[in-house]
Design a protein that fits this description.
With 131 residues, the chain is an alpha/beta fold. It contains 4 helices and 8 strands. This is UDP-glucose 4-epimerase.
């Protein structure tokens, strides 16, 4: 089995379950900074427009996970783990009313993991597969 590029902690999965119960299918996009910092943003599936400048990294707990192509250039050698912590984030992410926020923990892939990476897709390729 290929090395996954993105994972979720049990606490993040429990939060995803709560949000999915309220909002239906979900998706994530790793924010690139600015006013919302650099945090994973959770949206109802389809509420964030994916395009040619996005990369699909895989799924966490049944939710597609994306980031911008330019950000992926920097983070392609790291495994991302979505976690959750108490406190209000400065974003439009769905978990904010729960009094928690998603965050990313990262680590570099080992040499062995780097040789067996899960594939990524450009946003346009992802959208074509969904059509």
């Amino acid at each position: 089995m290929p090395t996954p590029r993105v994972l979720a902690t049990p606490a993040a999965e429990a939060t995803i379950d709560l949000l999915r119960d309220e909002n239906g299918p979900l998706m994530f996009h790793q924010s690139g900074g600015c006013c919302d910092g650099s945090s994973p943003m959770c949206f109802a599936k389809g509420e964030f427009r994916i395009g040619g400048n996005d990369v699909w990294l895989g799924q966490i707990h049944g939710c597609d996970f994306f980031m911008s192509t330019s950000q992926f250039e920097y983070w392609q050698h790291t495994q991302l783990t979505v976690d959750v912590t108490k406190g209000r984030g400065a974003s439009f992410s769905l978990e904010i009313p729960l009094g928690v926020r998603f965050l990313i923990r990262s680590r570099l892939f080992t040499e062995a993991e780097s040789k067996d990476m899960a594939p990524v897709m450009q946003g346009e390729e992802y959208l074509e597969q969904q059509a």
